[in-house]
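Renewal narrative, Specific Aim 1. Our central claim is that a sequence can be written position by position from structural information alone. The example that follows is taken directly from our test logs and has not been curated for this report. It begins with the structure tokens describing the chain, in the order in which they were read.
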């Protein structure tokens, strides 16, 4: 499990959750965009 890439795992979990509760799609996309925007503005936030 330690060698499993982080992004595909998150994508898989998000896809399953969206299939179960489609209403969450808006929140998941919004959170993703906020995180990408913050990382773009403040690159020192990434480890």
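The sequence written for that structure reads:
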């Amino acid at each position: 499990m330690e060698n499993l890439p982080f992004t595909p795992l998150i994508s898989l979990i998000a896809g399953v959750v969206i299939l179960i509760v489609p209403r969450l799609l808006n929140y998941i996309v919004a959170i993703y965009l906020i995180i990408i925007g913050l990382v773009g503005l403040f690159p020192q936030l990434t480890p």
